[in-house]
Amino acid sequence: MKLKESYSVVIDAVPPYSFELSLRKPAGWWWSTPEEIFENGVCWSATRFNKELLGLKLCSTGTKEKPQVHCTIYSKNKIGNSEKQNIVRMLQRSLKTKENLTGFYELSKKDDIMRGVVEDLFGMHTVGWPELFPALILAVTLQMAPMKRSNQMMDLLMAKFGEQINFNGKTVRYWPSTETIASKSTQELMTEAKLGYRAKNLIDIAKTLNQGFPTLDELSSLDPQEAKQKILSLQGIGPYSAELVMPRMEFPLDTWSAKIFNVLFFGIEPQKPRDAVPALKKVAEERWGNWRGYAFVYVLNDLTKLSERIGFDLTKF
DNA sequence: GCGTCCAGGTCTACC
DNA sequence: GGTAGACCTGGACGC
After folding, report:
1. Is A238 (CB) below 7 Å from strand B?
2. Would you give the distance in Å from CA A247 to the centre of its chain?
3. Residue with CA nearest C6 C1'?
């Protein structure tokens, strides 16, 4: 589908804000879709807003100290003024441009783990999901699978059921819609996207979202615990997945990250990583409070340098 | 080449 | 309220 340029907006961010570190994490994580393109500091990405696909071209027009993000929005149909404002709000939320990291950096000065990590990644913000369903797809495909297999499932979902947009000379593939997934049979998703037992859950989630479910913008205006309960009510979404999807990320420990944080907190590898999760979450909450989501993202994006500092190879997990 | 194990969780049944 | 056991699938591993 070919999209036309609709409008541009410049979003100011609270400094320090590193556009490149925030949008293209050192560990390789993408923002909205694994297919987004990042070249010479410019990001071409996509999202779905009110059921319509949008192309997004983002770049920094400021500095870490005076940050500005220039966003151009591409669409098939004309976008009305109130819709434009809603899209800007969505971008501000998902790019975390209003988040002030002063408290996090103050706390990190006194923390042995975080002190070096924040120096390495100064200005990096966590990012939020532009859209809820892709976040849930990621969470579901990460369950009970090595990364290679999760990537295979996501890639097949995009290839067989996703959509492709062309704008500004770029082509970006995007996630399937809830309508598309809800219309498929369990068997179809099992064979075509190799989802296994997750197929049933993903269809169930898509149907629930179709029946009317808060968007991420709406969830972010709720009390965090209320928002979490809402997300947890979805079939196949447990604590790990909910914390991964939450507007303000908590501490989504899985077996991989549990091994890493067990080494950081207690100096040893856990015998059973899943059993170690409750104790690790407790330590993270006591140590980092509401900034634990930030600590989580900073640590996992700085494993190589952190490993050198502590003399333990955290990248082996 | 073949069999076994288990992974970046969640739900259910049972106590 | 706590906890085994099951769940798709395919890559890794041992033989």
Report:
1. yes
2. 9
3. A197
CB burial of residue A86 (10 Å; 0-12, 13-18, 19+): middle
Q: CA A244 to CA A248: how far, in whole Å?
A: 9
Q: Which of A299, A209, A317 is nearest to A249 (CA)?
A: A299
Whether A142 sits with its Cβ under 7 A from any strand B atom: the answer reads yes
A96-154 per-position pLDDT tens digit: 999 999 999 999 999 999 999 999 999 999 999 999 999 999 999 999 999 999 999 99
8 Å CB contact between A180 and A161: yes
Strand C nucleotides with an atom less than 7 Å from a protein beta carbon: 7-12
Nearest DNA or RNA nucleotide to A198 (CA to C1'): C8
CA A197 to chain CA centroid, Å, is: 23
Residue type at A114 in one-letter notation:
M
A193-233 tens-digit pLDDT: 999 999 999 999 999 999 999 999 999 999 999 999 999 99
The answer to whether some atom of strand B lies closer than 7 Å to the beta carbon of A274 is yes
Question: Nearest nt (C1') to A149 (CA)?
Answer: C10
